[in-house]
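Agenda item 2: copper (II) ion complex prediction
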Amino acid sequence: MAAYANVIATLAALAVIDGCARERPAEVTPAADPSIAASDLRTPGLAGQQVTCAGPRTKTFALTVREGEVDLGMATRFHAWTYDGRLPGPTLEACEGDTVTITVHNTAAIAHGLDTHALTIDARKFGPTEPGETLTIQGTAATPGVFMYHCSVGPVTDIHIKSGMHGPMIVYPRGVALRPAYEAVVVQDAIFGERDADGVILGGDTQRMKRNDPEFRLFNGRLEHEPRHVVAGELVRLYLVNVGPGVSAAHVVGGMFDAVIDGSTIIHAVQTYAVAPGAGAILEFRVPEPGEFVLVDHDQLGFLPLGLGLRFVAER
Ligand SMILES: [Cu+2]
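Presented output:
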């Protein structure tokens, strides 16, 4: 309990998030809750802690499994299996202690499911569910943090995850206002198929999936990124989920993580932090001066020009 209290205290002392999340949660209805103080979090694309924790303590998310093409940038399209047609899937935001219900309607031609690491429940409840049917998952988001969710379909789960079926879920601490920050969700994932002459990737190579040998490693399902505009001196909080393959050696070129929150562990003054596949961590750095600061996987710098680099730009 002491360690947990420390996490909450540190989260309280901190404050974060980013605009990488391009989607809103399926359903988060704000309501007045004076226990959450106002702050000036900058959370483009997210509901954020205040709204999420001020809302009803029951959160419902409705996801739809869809097959289809997603745009990766660089004139490349990927025929993926997705949640809501997005790669990664939408960011699900809940608050510590919420009762969470996730429905997954399967419009695809084969069975799919959903496993969120934020809920500790009977694993059989994660599916799969047959085409045309809807899976309902319910549990309590008891642990704050950033978590991976992904398809759950028995022995072929790996192929489904690597075909696009994954996303982030944030569980904000309750009753503790995060520090003001620019916040971003970053999902590190990979593509296992090659582009054809038209720039289309028709799914993935299952042998390469088995070998953990991707064609592309990228952030947020994009081979190219618009820079994030931040302010010199500002705190940046990253909610990072590593889908894999491989450990993500998360590092900000020109920066230093002044806090890393990973489960009940909080460490400070970190140059590079290892996030295991299937794990998430909250990474915070302060923009030291005007200029450019780039989130990379320091073990995979060869993929930096192909989507595995996220620039934070502070104007002078
Ligand atoms: Cu699936």
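Discussion summary: Helices lie at 2-13, 48-54, 157-162, 206-210.
Owner for follow-up: CH.
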